[in-house]
Structure formats: structure tokens, C-alpha cells
Design brief:
Layout lengths: L1 E8 L5 H20 L3 E7 L4 H7 L5 H10 L1 E4 L13 H8 L4 E7 L15 E7 L9 E2 L4 H14 L12 E2 L5 H17 L4 E6 L8 H15 L1 H5 L4 E6 H10 L6 E4 L1 H14 L7 E5 L6 E5 L16 H13 L3 H16 L2 E3 H4 L6 E3 L1 H12 L6
Parallel strand pairs: 1-2, 1-3, 3-12, 5-10, 8-9, 8-10, 13-14
Antiparallel strand pairs: 4-5, 4-11, 6-7, 11-12
The protein binds adenosine-5'-triphosphate.
């Protein structure tokens, strides 16, 4: 018998509803797929409001230690504490484990309404760099002495003469490194090969930001040529690039042109939301933050805490459930993941879903979070009757 201990954070807001739903569905799929020979021992760790209520800190050291020790975990959405100088808990978690890839697979499930004519053509996997770019948080507010000092440095020492309104400008810094770009592109290329996905596309704004975004492009091509020369020459892997604005347009006009997308942090943010909208929106988009060198990975609901619907048994648990499917695939328990995906798709095809999805289905039936969860459990067990 194989049992893995899986740390999890319930999360704030709708986390209290979607996390137990996800656990029930995963446990059912494991039982059905492996008949008790593969199990998860769920280990709750605390972060966000729950942690603050219990321990007085938003992200206890213990939580970081447990994730570090167990390597793989899963989390619901977390509230960002309000206040000057308090950082997003998601960002702190990612940075403390150096989870440098934000992976978002984007595919369409039959039955889900989409603004596209052919959503079935969408099969893209976004590798968003998670540790650099403007997310490093290096910026100064307009009118502060720091902004003034920074401007004087630019002007006096760096010869910068084209800041249009220096007195009222805020400033930000965008660090992008060769190492950071290379490890991201390496992970994307390996993933493409493992999943038989032909092309890695480097998406960037190198035409405007020549050394940061342009550097990412150059380092990405060079890394691929150096480390994947056989795969490239044998045609098992292709690498190309696209300017970010054209890319967003092309994904709508010609989605089959793209499979694995490697991009910097801010581009990745925009791209993730657009691609999610193309196949059903954030309620159903899964994601993971991964360090492929150490093996650390945290799978997560990609939406926020949805305070407007929290506690009303209306939240869609699919983002977290599909993140758990990614986790099961990550540890090689694919059969259980496939059972879950099939059960969800059967439900969507019959137009049965939570309100956020059901309202766009022509004959949709809106189910509560708990009602939807029960139905998925019955479908996995092969006991669902309409
Ligand atoms: P936060 O401050 O935590 O980011 P938010 O409300 O600003 O929360 P989201 O939680 O991402 O941002 O929610 C945006 C909108 O999408 C809200 O109207 C919310 O109700 C809806 N939404 C988000 N997640 C879900 C979900 N799982 N099921 C249904 N609706 C959702």
C-alpha cells in the first residue's frame, strides 16, 4: 500500500467550501482507481485568516517547513492582508520555496460555454516565470524622496534625459536574469517533450524592452540550441517566439498554432486570464507553482477568495479539483486524475454545474457546491442516475 502525506491549506473565503469538496472527490477517485492501495493522508497546515486567528501570524514558519519537508502540497485561495508593507501570502509562499514556474494548462471541456467558435482547438500550457520581472516589487511612489533620489541617479549618473515629468513620476525596476530565463525555458522544453507537445513559443515584448524581454528571448533560444539540439534537429521539438500583443490576438484567431508558452511574469498574468476566459473562466482554471530542480510544488485554485459568494454554497470547486488532477498526474497517479476529469466532463455535457458555469449553458441546471460535489462522487463511482 502506498500512502502519501499531502499538506494542504484550506484557504480563506470560498476555500472553506471548495477544499473539502476537492478532498472528497480526490479520495473517491483514489478508492475507485486503486481500491485502497494508493491513499492520501491529508495534513492541514495554516495560512491566511485561519492562521492569523489561531497563531497571530498570517503565514507561520511551521507551514513553510511542512511544505519544504513534503515537497508537494495544495492550497485554496488566500486573503492578502491589508496594510502597508504586508505582502501577498501567495507571493511569500512562492518565493520562500523558489517556485519559479507558474504552470497553467488550458484546455476546453465539452459542455462548457466559450466565446470561441472552436474551443476544442485550445490546448495550451503556460509557463509563467514566477520570481522576477516587475513582480520583484522594486518601485517608488511619485513625490517621495526615494523617487527623487532614483531620478537624480538616472539623470546625473546614467545620462537619462527623457523622463517626461520627473517631478511627478513614480519609478519601477524590472529585473530579468539569464539564469531565471534559462531555468524557465528549460522546464518548458522538457515539459513539451514529455507531453508530446511540438512547439515552445517564447512570448515577449523584446521589440520595446530590448534587454529584459529581448534578453529573455535571446537566452531562451540559446538555451534550447545548447541543451536540446538533438530534439530540435530531429524535429521532436520546435522553438519559436511571438510578440505579446500579436500573441494575444493569434490565440483567438489561430489557437492550434500554440502548445507550450514560455513567458515572463507580467505577460504571463495577462495571458493566463485571457486563455482561461477562452475555455470557461477562472472558476475552472487550474494551476501549480513548481521548482523543477528541488521538486517542490504547490497546486492551487487560481481564483481569489470570492468574498461576495463565500459561505453561500455557490462556489465552483473545479479550479481546485483540476489543480488536484494536475497534482495526481505530477506524482504519476494518472488513472485517478482521469476518472475525475471524465466525471466533470460528463456533468458539463449534461449541463449540470455550479451557477457561474450553468448560467451560460443553454439548458443549464445550477447546482450548489455540495450538490455538484455529490454528483461528481456518484459519477466517479459509476452510480450516478439523472
Ligand atoms: P480576492 O480579493 O481574494 O482576489 P476577488 O473577489 O477580488 O477576491 P476573485 O475571488 O478571483 O477575486 O473573484 C472575482 C469574481 O469571480 C467574483 O465575482 C467571484 O465571486 C467570482 N469567483 C471567483 N472564484 C469563483 C468560484 N470558485 N466560483 C464561482 N465564482 C467565483
Amino acid at each position: 500500500m502506498e500512502t502519501i502525506t499531502l499538506p494542504y491549506i484550506t484557504g480563506d473565503g470560498v476555500g472553506a467550501e471548495i477544499t473539502p469538496a476537492m478532498q472528497t472527490i480526490v479520495d473517491t477517485a483514489l478508492y475507485k482507481a486503486y481500491n485502497g492501495t494508493r491513499n492520501i493522508r491529508w495534513l492541514e497546515v495554516f495560512a491566511g485568516e485561519r492562521a492569523f486567528r489561531q497563531t497571530g501570524t498570517w503565514l507561520p514558519e511551521e507551514t513553510l517547513k511542512v511544505f519544504e519537508q513534503h515537497q508537494v502540497g495544495i492550497k485554496g485561495p488566500l486573503t492578502t492582508p491589508v496594510g502597508e508593507g504586508v505582502r501577498s501570502l501567495n507571493v511569500v509562499l512562492r518565493q520562500s520555496l523558489d517556485l519559479y514556474v507558474c504552470l497553467r494548462p488550458v484546455r476546453w471541456y465539452r459542455g462548457i460555454s466559450s466565446p470561441l467558435l472552436h474551443p476544442e482547438l485550445v490546448n495550451m500550457h503556460i509557463f509563467r516565470e514566477n520570481t522576477e520581472d516587475i513582480y520583484a516589487g522594486i518601485e517608488w511612489e511619485a513625490g517621495t524622496s526615494e523617487a527623487g533620489k532614483f531620478y537624480r541617479f538616472l539623470h546625473d549618473q546614467m545620462g537619462v534625459a527623457n523622463v517626461r515629468f520627473p517631478e511627478t513620476s513614480a519609478f519601477g525596476v524590472k529585473p530579468v536574469s539569464r539564469e531565471g530565463s534559462e531555468r524557465l525555458v528549460r522546464a518548458a522544453c522538457r515539459y513539451a517533450l514529455q507531453h508530446n507537445l511540438a512547439t515552445v513559443t517564447l512570448v515577449h515584448k523584446g521589440n520595446i524592452m530590448k534587454y529584459t524581454e529581448g534578453g529573455f528571448r535571446r537566452w531562451g533560444y540559446a538555451l534550447a540550441a545548447r541543451e536540446f539540439s538533438d530534439e530540435l534537429s530531429e524535429g521532436r521539438l520546435r522553438i519559436n517566439d511571438c510578440i505579446a500583443d500579436a500573441f494575444l490576438q493569434n490565440t483567438l484567431l489561430n489557437p492550434t498554432a500554440y502548445s507550450v508558452i514560455a513567458t515572463l511574469n507580467l505577460n504571463g498574468d495577462y495571458i493566463s486570464d485571457q486563455l482561461a476566459a477562452m475555455v470557461g473562466g477562472i472558476g475552472i482554471a487550474p494551476g501549480a507553482n513548481i521548482n523543477y530542480q528541488t521538486g517542490h510544488a504547490i497546486f492551487e485554485a487560481t481564483h481569489g477568495t470570492a468574498p461576495d459568494i463565500a459561505g453561500s454554497n455557490r462556489a465552483n470547486p473545479c479550479s481546485l479539483i483540476l489543480s488536484a488532477v494536475m497534482l495526481l498526474e505530477h506524482i504519476g497517479w494518472n488513472e485517478a486524475g482521469a476518472l475525475i476529469e471524465n466525471a466533470l466532463e460528463q456533468s458539463f455535457v449534461q449541463e449540470r454545474a455550479t451557477l457561474d458555469l450553468a448560467r451560460f449553458m443553454p439548458g443549464g441546471t445550477a447546482l450548489s457546491t455540495s450538490g455538484f460535489t455529490k454528483e461528481i462522487v456518484m459519477r466517479i463511482l459509476g452510480k450516478y442516475h439523472a
